[in-house]
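Dock adenosine monophosphate; give full complex structure.
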Amino acid sequence: MTYQQEYQASIEQPEAFWQKQSQRIQWFKKPGKILAKDENGIDRWFVDGEMNTAYLALDYHVLNGRGDQPALIYDSPVTGNKRTYTYAQLTESVALAAGMLKAQGVEKGDRVIIYMPMIPEAAIAMLACARLGAVHSVVFGGFAPHELAIRIEDAEPKVIMSASCGIEIDRVIEYKPILDEAIELASHKVGCCLIYQRETRRCELTPGRDLDWQETIARSQPADCTPVNALDPLYVLYTSGTTGKPKGVVRDNGGHAVAMNYSMEVVYDMQPGDVFWAASDVGWVVGHSYIVYAPLLAGCTTVFYEGKPVRTPDAGAFWRVCEEYGVKGLFAAPTAFRAIRKEDPECKLAEQYDLSKLKTIFMAGERLDPPTYDWVVQKIKRPVVDHWWQTETGWAIAGNHMGLEPARVKAGSVTRPSPGYNVQILDPSGQPVGANEQGSIAIKLPLPPGCLPTIWGNHDRFVAGYLSTFDGYYVSGDGGMLDDDNYLFVMGRTDDIINVAGHRLSTGEMEEVVAGHEAVAECAVIGRHSDLKGEEPLGLVLLKDGVDVDEDQLRAELIQRVRDQIGAVASFRDAVIVKRLPKTRSGKILRKVLRNIANSEEYQTPSTIDDPACLGEIEGILSSRGLRL
Ligand code: COA
Ligand code: AMP
């Protein structure tokens, strides 16, 4: 099949297309109905199928002769540890962890929060939940107590699984105080926390609530796989919205397994037995889809890396791992390569390693800037595939499908829509625009398998945020265009979401935190270009009348506030005091023009502006701080 044929088939006959793909996984009960509406009127796939995701990712392979093949390779330059789990060993570990959860009363449908560093137990915890039909919600380790508390409050977990600490290059991050504070803040009370004690730094357990993971698992009996319906949720993953409250993206079991399996072959050209490495974190969607589920569902070997692209110990880390495990597909955010390039501009370190097994480098999570693309292609001499997707979709909406055709990239494009995604560019009235014209990137319904069917506990938010803008379409929140060859160009978010080092963050949420400072009357947080991280937040702050503060001190306090309430990962490192903020006559802050000013872009004074003089004033303030290019 060529890409064109495959794509055409998926759009013209979606049910037949996905039925065929669904036959490639082993169902306990095959779906008779491929596509139907659920009680909310949302299109759902494989509605009456029964299966178990952990069974497909593990037991299935053991039963089919892959028991001795490496399933997961843990490589941790921050601790010096390396460990390989075969499919048989990982299945056993997951069954025991499932037994440990079961003994704590966790059953099908119960939620379990996983707040863990990049140790294999994090993947084991996810798969153990899947084995029981419980719903996991992994929270990224870089988030502060308040963020963890919001997720505890919303997901209402029966159990939390965590660890004594994480390690950031050479810094130990104690998890236990963060966990304790989050539990204290949340009104939902958790009965039990299972804490994995790491040798690097052990922690004190809270009597009556915490259990030592290693001791408890040693007493546990393995648990079997619980059959679940295809529509039952596998996980909830919170992602930034435009407000302070993150959205719990729900992923179902059946559609997800089919889509993951399909994408491994078609998007990444990976066959069973191949080694795939997504250099991300299980706290993000890339970690869910391409560190844990997809490689295992496809019978590949996944690399589980607890380190950074640089400084663990140097900018050769990626190439060392690729050589050591024979990585065929490498997936990382462009930021990682910008960091490597900064430290090793000639990419000399790569020359020390045998990269003969490496076929393709995939990038996503943020815009791939042409200089980074050119540099990687030139230095590593491999196809570099940019692909575009979101937490909501769980897999690539567009990319160069390496399993269907060789790399046929156009500079600046994320190539063409993936089979199953009917991508359209719409004008503000919801009409498709012509080729090469910009608009909102939308996906004509139905979304393919694997994409979210709702927001956890708030279906109205799903409808309001994604489905109600344009009738019959899912709106992505990104703007862009399709060219004459149906190549997609993604221009960036049309809302208040920014991408910092490939991490999705809400400026609206940061504004709420900054505005909570007693001296601040109002503020705007905008994304400013960063050579390393793509974007970095900058706060523009208006003081309350009569308040007299030292600007440096206020800046330090605001930075600390964002670190304490969102986390260091927000990279909120700068704020300036302004005298006025540009607003419409109805009082809405004009953030777009602020972004233009802070990025030294040309702009037109918006016709709706109340007080045009304030723009020149802000330009002056930012210039005097060296914040304009
Ligand atoms: N736990 C605790 N803290 C964390 C953390 C975690 N899991 N991850 C990041 N942080 C902290 C960092 O230590 C840093 O703290 P600091 O401000 O005290 O120094 C802060 O959050 C910002 O982190 P980051 O944005 O990662 O910047 P950095 O300067 O530490 O590292 C890179 C820069 C480029 C090396 C790093 O961003 C990177 O590896 N990026 C790859 C992006 C990626 O994998 N994205 C995943 C989506 S695909
Ligand atoms: P996340 O949900 O964290 O995966 O972030 C999704 C957002 O990241 C998208 O809506 C885009 O704004 C951005 N993004 C992801 N991949 C790309 C890409 N390849 N090019 C440009 N932007 C991207």
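Observed: Residues 438 and 481 are 5 Å apart (CA to CA).
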